[in-house]
Design brief:
It comes from Aurantimicrobium photophilum. This is Type II toxin-antitoxin system RelE/ParE family toxin. The chain is built from 2 helices and 5 strands. It has one domain: RelE-like (YaeB-like fold, 2-Layer Sandwich). Strands 1-5-4-3-2 form a 5-stranded mixed beta sheet. The longest helix has 23 residues. It has 103 residues and is an alpha+beta fold.
């Protein structure tokens, strides 16, 4: 599975504190392992509860994870695409709950 970021994600990421970046990267490791499991067996796959994975209502195809539960909550949004028969995660936004206003 491949990963790409949008320009908005890059701008959001630069605004995160060093501590928030480290917390996001810890959650990202869990996310990547879960994506590998998803590719291996999509039928049996379930997202780890620690990521609080959700499909966003009103934003077709956009999903989110929570990477920090200690106030304020850290969130990241993404969607999946297929390129050359391979799944690609497109990271859209990263930050606090306000990113849901424009996921």
């Amino acid at each position: 599975m491949k990963y790409r970021t949008t320009p908005q994600f890059e701008r959001d990421y630069k605004k995160l504190s060093t501590s928030d970046k480290a917390t996001f990267h810890k959650a990202l490791k869990v996310f990547i392992e879960s994506c590998k499991a998803l590719e291996h067996d999509p039928v049996a796959h379930s997202w780890p509860g620690s990521l609080r994975f959700e499909k966003l209502k009103g934003a077709q195809g956009v999903c989110a994870i929570t990477w920090s539960f200690s106030g304020p909550d850290g969130r990241a949004t993404f969607h999946f695409e297929t390129e050359h028969h391979e799944t690609v995660v497109i990271w859209r936004r990263v930050g606090l709950h306000a990113i849901y206003n424009n996921p």
